[in-house]
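Hi D.,

Good news: the full-assembly prediction came through. Inputs first.
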Amino acid sequence: MANPITRALAALGRNVVNAMAGLGRFGALAVAATRAGRDVTTWGRLLAVQMARIGVESVPIALFIATFTGIVLALQASYTFTGAVPLYFVGTLVGKTMILELGPVLTGLALAGRVGANIAAELGTMRVTEQIDALETLAYDPAAYLIVPRVIAGTLMFPVVVVLADGVGIVAGWITSLYLLDMSTEEFIRGLKLFFAPFDVRFSLIKATSFGLTVTAVGCYYGFTTIGGAEGVGRSTTRAVVVASMVILVLDAFWAIVLL
Amino acid sequence: MSLRLVEVHKAFGSKQILKGFTLEVREGETLALIGASGSGKSVALKHIIGLLQPDAGEVWVDGRRIADLERSELYEVRRNVGYVFQFAALFDSMTVGENVGMGLRRIPGMSEAEIQERVRESLRLVDLPGFEDRYPAELSGGQKKRAGLARAIATHPKYVLYDEPTTGLDPLTKTVIDRLTIRMRKELNVTGVAVTHDMDSAYRMADRIAMLHDGRVRFVGTPAEIQKTEDRVVRGFIEGRPELVGEYQ
Ligand SMILES: Nc1ncnc2c1ncn2[C@@H]1O[C@H](COP(=O)(O)OP(=O)(O)OP(=O)(O)O)[C@@H](O)[C@H]1O
Ligand SMILES: [Mg+2]
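Then the structure:
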């Protein structure tokens, strides 16, 4: 094993094996969660709480981000166009960019931090303090009790939050155009409508739904598979955020390739 | 009906913890499981309720082999088994009352009033009357332990598995819990397995004592029998004399 090439190959092999084992664990958990989906009586009454925690409580941060994104988009658009392009195209750029890309992706990334970390830390703590085992001994299916309500809540609520973010971003861009760019409302609306397609909103919603599923599923996975005390919980939380963010960016490209 | 573990093997990674663990707990008895720290007592107990699956060997509860059960059947079996966790494992997002009521809410046809009454009764039994609205974070270690015990016995299970129910309690509370264990057996005919380090406790409440050593049951017998045993390892453990148990020298 002294040979550096052998050692590197061994390390590579270990990583591949670990990755495969992780995928296997994720698959097993996904199967358990799908099966638990039928246990409606268990997760049904927990859904509202999770929808509030994952959705409603995420609205302020999402709108905060959307507001500043809208302002910057309007200013950068007008800076870029500098007379060469009619100013009403600011409305086009703000609308399209907000709905197609920045609304869903920035919200998704922010919620990967807020929601994904929260789920991983909470479930990770429950795992290492044997609370998940305790659920089992009391004849509750932990997948039905903990995973299903979170994943469903995330999948349902992310689109709602993203639509609000899209809207608020556009409004922020419009107000910026009015007061900082000397545009009129008519001009902004004209630009906004110019290349608008109803499909854009559907595209935004499809992305948001897939991001909601990703963030909650990844958070649940790292929470459930946490091992080893407070340090383990910290590790799971970090991984959940990093992995969820990466998957969001990959999905973002995936939807662009497949749907546009 | 009874609890039975047959030739159970269990390893974590390369660490072999159980190496052919065989134990039968008879109906209506309380069996104390003793053994050194890290010998695998909690691991053995978790096999009974299916929290861990054996690498080899069989676990039988109530005449049913755990490995054969569908999930729903496993939950049916678990409704008859109370499990007291070594570190309480209370749900920290819920009050003590909600914790104790969790198992009761799985029983079909139990009304809210009945649940509340049963929660009150269970908390009284473990000497925590009126603690319903407290949160686990507001309890001392010993109080948590007793709340965990209340949660396990609230459903009046046929079997109770106690993982060190009295470790870390003061002598008075310890006696209260030991008496509760005895009462569970006498009045509710509960079959129990109690992991313990405390020999006084074991002598007081157990019908039989089993000692786990090196992954197997080294000795099983009544308190009177264990006190007379010639086995050096067992003597060394119960008398606290490492020099008798080879590997502790
Ligand atoms: N989930 C697990 N993963 C890896 N190792 C484990 C796991 N559970 C237990 N072990 C290991 O198994 C061994 C036995 O643990 P166990 O908790 O059963 O000991 P114990 O006899 O209950 O000890 P104590 O009296 O200190 O509670 C320990 O070495 C422990 O590190
Ligand atoms: Mg233990």
